[in-house]
């Protein structure tokens, strides 16, 4: 028995953790993703730096005159020198990362650039002293010292600019991909509305015992609804399909809310091929149920009217305004309606509109869409 | 154990009922459809444990549990929820029992076998962790070892004396142990207006403000034939409210 308890607890915790990862709206960004400049503390970026430095070493070895008896020794010396600069640069960028990320983008870039030039100068200087220490040159600053520094700094100025640009472009790309994926995930999550999903599943579990046929129908409705929700956002569908989908959704809600939900349909006639964006009706109805029916213990009725009005499709949805309760007035469902407004704008530009009114104890949403697909 | 089932969805209540029958050893003493009914049935039926949905009309599960915790010898409460991320985090943190919908038989049996009493403090911590902490729709007043719920919109004013706060409705007067500062914080300026160091008046019940011959101000009430003094310190804020 104890063992069972423990496994059950472990399972609950596991499910909880999973739910959290999948559904938490403020899923934190990984710290590596932030910032305008690439993260030089990161192994992959470091590898990039080393590869770029080594390619530069090859190029320089190929184009400069010999400084030692054979080419491999040249390559070795030049590689050591350039890698030294490259790794010191990466270390400096890694150490000052927090400071640089706090600056505005332009300034962060300039500061990073100057910092890297400084590193180049310092390493060049240090290498002169090392050569002197090992007796390779008679004085730390021979007559070609100035030429050496100028040459190094010029090459560095060009290479650093290119390398930084390249690494930053990669960083931007990576950030954009991540934020796009995150936005998609959030949109999907908002559409699927986990509260509705899990409540419906609970209801279906209940129905499988008492009324298996109803449970079957509910699962079919849910499958159709979720197929649409998971499908492409951009589709225009025939009006009758959108109405059918809305009815499937309402069937599910009716199971949940029982006699508390009544819907009065009033559908005019439309040209057979008239279309509207998929999932226009369903979120409007969901909003009405959430804010107009669920807060009322006795429920109420939702009015849905679709009409053709001078070459427009007019959708009017009304629900009771819960009043007199001490709860905050959240009847408007601001964000849901804003989302729908945005979707309509992306389909129709300025020619579609969504208006909100309150009157006679009812909340009224009116959506006007240009008729499309109706005319041959 | 004697179990009370509270959920606004009939089929959700049915499911719990069927699962409880299958598990055995438990008696279902009643059902409720919202927080108010949860409190009423608890007084009436004295269950050992309540299975309580969180999102319900008029009074949600969290508030109902808070009122119930104020009773003498309150039952255990196990919350049931489909999805409330912030509530779940807070439940975990404060060791509050909960079940996720769809509810599974083994988890239900397990939860009932180890259900423990909640404290008001646990619930308050859960509430504070919410995005928008719940504002009570009712105030519970103690009457002969039981509690009675007074709808907040029926309250005309709160009046404080040394130790207690008096709640005045059109019909009744009750004493509660609370402070005006807490009440003002919870209900904010939208619902109640501070007119005196010791008085908070419901904006729903104010008829108007008027000046006395002595030059002080008074608040007239809609449902009570009496006037309340506005203290000098609160005159400006009361008049600002009246102008809106």
What does this structure look like?
The complex is a heterodimer of chains A (376) and B (244). Chain A is an alpha+beta fold and 376 residues long. Chain A is 62% helix and 13% strand. Chain A is built from 11 helices and 7 strands. In chain A, a hairpin with a 2-residue loop joins strand 6 (353-359) and strand 7 (362-370). The longest helix of chain A has 48 residues, at 145-192. Chain B is an alpha/beta fold and 244 residues long. Chain B is built from 8 helices and 15 strands. Chain B has helices at residues 10-23, 35-45, 61-69, 85-93, 105-114, 120-128, 180-191, 235-243, and strands spanning 2-6, 27-32, 49-53, 76-81, 98-100, 138-143, 146-151, 155-160, 165-169, 173-176, 192-196, 199-202, 206-211, 217-221, 227-230. In chain B, strands 2-1-3-4-5 form a 5-stranded parallel β-sheet, sandwiched between helices. In chain B, strand 11 (192-196) and strand 12 form a beta hairpin. In chain B, helix 2 (35-45) runs parallel beside helix 3 and helix 3 (61-69) packs antiparallel against helix 6 (120-128). The N and C termini of chain B lie far apart (55 Å). The chains are: A alpha+beta (376), B alpha/beta (244). Chain A binds chain B through residues 4-5, 8-9, 12, 15-16, 19-20, 23-25, 194-199, 201-207, 209-210, 255-258, 294-297, 324-328, and chain B through 8-12, 14-15, 18, 33-34, 55, 57-58, 82-85, 88-89, 92, 100-103, 106-107, 110, 113-114, 132, 135-138, 151-153, 191.
Unreliable residue stretches of chain A: 24-33, 324-332
Q: How are the strands ordered across the major sheet of chain A?
A: 2-4-5-7-6
What integer value in Å does the Rg of chain B equal? 21 Å
Helix/strand/pairing category of chain A: alpha+beta
Oligomer: heterodimer
Element string of chain A (H = helix, E = strand):
HHHHHHHHEHEEHEEHEE
In whole angstroms, the N-to-C terminal distance of chain A is: 71 Å
Global morphology of chain A: elongated
What is the average per-residue confidence, as pLDDT of chain B, rounded to a whole number? 89
The helix-strand sequence of chain B is EHEHEHEHEHHEEEEEHEEEEEH
Classify the secondary structure makeup of chain B into a structural class: alpha/beta
Largest sheet of chain B: 5 strands, parallel
Helix fraction of chain B by DSSP (H/I, runs of at least 4):
25-40%
Query: Can you tell me the residue ranges of chain B where pLDDT is under 50 for at least 5 consecutive residues?
Result: none
Rg of chain A (CA only): 33 Å
């Amino acid at each position: 028995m104890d063992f069972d308890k423990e496994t059950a607890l472990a399972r609950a915790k596991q499910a909880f953790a999973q739910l959290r990862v999948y559904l938490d709206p403020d899923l934190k960004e990984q710290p590596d993703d932030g910032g305008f400049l690439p993260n030089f503390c990161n192994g992959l970026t470091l590898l990039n730096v080393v590869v770029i430095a080594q390619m530069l070493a090859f190029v320089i070895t190929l184009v400069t005159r010999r400084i030692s008896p054979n080419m491999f020794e040249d390559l070795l010396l030049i590689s050591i020198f350039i890698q030294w600069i490259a790794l010191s640069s990466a270390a400096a960028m890694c150490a000052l990362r927090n400071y640089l990320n706090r600056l505005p983008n332009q300034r962060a870039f300039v500061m990073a650039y100057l910092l890297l030039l400084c590193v180049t100068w310092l390493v060049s200087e240090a290498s002169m002293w090392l050569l002197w220490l090992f007796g390779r040159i008679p004085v730390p600053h021979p007559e070609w010292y100035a030429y050496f520094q100028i040459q190094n700094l010029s090459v560095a100025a060009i290479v650093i600019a290119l390398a930084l640009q390249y690494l930053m472009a990669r960083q931007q790309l990576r950030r954009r991909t991540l934020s796009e994926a995150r936005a998609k995930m959030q949109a999907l999550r908002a559409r699927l509305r986990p509260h509705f999903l899990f409540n419906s599943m609970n209801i279906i579990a209940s129905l499988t015992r008492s009324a298996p046929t109803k449970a079957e129908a509910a699962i079919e409705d849910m499958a159709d609804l979720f197929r649409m929700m998971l499908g492409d956002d951009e589709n225009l569908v025939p009006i009758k399909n959108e109405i059918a989908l809305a009815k499937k959704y309402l069937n599910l809600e009716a199971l949940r809310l029982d006699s508390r939900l009544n819907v009065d349909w009033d559908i005019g006639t439309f040209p057979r091929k008239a279309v509207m964006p998929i999932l226009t009706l369903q979120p409007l109805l969901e909003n009405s149920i959430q804010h107009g029916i669920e807060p009322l213990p006795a429920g109420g009725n939702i009015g849905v009217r679709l009409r053709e009005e001078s070459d427009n499709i007019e959708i009017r949805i009304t629900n009771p305004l819960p009043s007199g309760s001490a709860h905050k007035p959240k009847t408007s469902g601001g964000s849901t309606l804003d989302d729908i407004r945005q979707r309509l704008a992306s389909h129709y530009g300025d020619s579609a509109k969504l208006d909100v009114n309150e009157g006679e104890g009812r909340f009224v949403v009116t959506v006007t869409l240009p008729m499309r697909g109706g005319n041959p | 154990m004697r179990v009370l089932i509270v959920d606004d969805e009939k089929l959700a209540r049915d499911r719990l009922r069927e699962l409880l029958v299958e598990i055995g050893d438990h008696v279902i003493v009643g059902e409720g459809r919202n927080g108010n009914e949860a409190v009423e049935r608890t007084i009436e039926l004295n269950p050992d444990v309540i299975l309580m949905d969180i999102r319900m009309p008029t009074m949600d599960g969290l508030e109902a549990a808070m009122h119930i915790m104020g009773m003498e010898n309150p039952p255990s409460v196990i919350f049931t929820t489909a999805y409330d991320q912030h509530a779940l985090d807070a439940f975990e943190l404060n060791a509050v029992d909960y079940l996720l919908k769809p509810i599974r038989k083994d988890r239900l049996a397990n939860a009932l076998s180890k259900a423990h009493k909640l404290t008001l403090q646990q619930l308050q911590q859960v509430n504070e962790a919410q995005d928008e902490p719940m504002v009570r729709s009712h105030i519970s007043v103690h009457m002969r070892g039981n509690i009675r719920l007074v709808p907040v919109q029926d309250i005309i004013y709160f009046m404080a004396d040394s130790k207690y706060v008096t709640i005045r409705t059109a019909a009744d007067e009750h004493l509660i142990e609370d402070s005006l500062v807490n009440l003002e914080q919870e209900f904010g300026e939208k619902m109640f207006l501070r007119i005196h160091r010791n008085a908070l008046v419901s904006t729903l019940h104010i008829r108007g403000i008027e000046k006395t011959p002595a030059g002080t101000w008074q608040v007239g009430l809609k449902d009570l034939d009496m006037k309340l003094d506005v203290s000098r310190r609160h005159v400006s804020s009361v008049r600002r409210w009246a102008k809106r």
